[in-house]
Specification:
This protein is an all-beta fold. Strand 7 and strand 8 form a beta hairpin. It is globular. The N and C termini lie far apart (40 Å).
């Protein structure tokens, strides 16, 4: 069992930065793949970024490549999403999720979810 808690969301102007954190509790956190997803009003939840258990491989959706960076600190049981050059279209509730195995971009593949943190980017 893994419990996930996101933090770091807020209101920022276009071009600004935020760093989201996903703090995990439970056993064997380092064995889990972590993904960040987001959901804007009226839209489906979409994959944003993912990281392997050791942190050696990362994955991004095309719209955030070069702007967002995912990283993890297994000693702190925390995964981060550094978001730079934010755009109004990045506005959404951001969720972190965990699963065993490989990184996938499909939200139903993930077993554990946090409660989400709101990110709002003003133009």
């Amino acid at each position: 069992q893994v419990q996930l808690v996101e933090s770091g969301g807020g209101l920022v102007q276009a071009g600004g930065s935020l760093r989201l954190s996903c703090a995990a509790s439970g056993r064997s956190f380092s064995n889990y793949i972590i993904g960040w997803f987001r959901q804007a009003p009226g839209k489906e939840r979409e994959f944003v970024a993912g990281i392997t258990w050791g942190g050696s491989r990362t994955y991004y959706t095309d719209s955030v490549k070069g702007r967002f960076t995912i990283s993890r600190d297994n000693a702190k049981n925390t995964v981060y999403l550094q978001m730079n050059s934010l755009k109004p279209e990045d506005t959404a509730v951001y969720y972190c999720a965990a699963r065993r195995g490989i990184v996938t971009m499909s939200s139903p593949d993930y077993d554990y979810w946090g409660q989400g943190t709101q990110v709002t980017v003003s133009s």
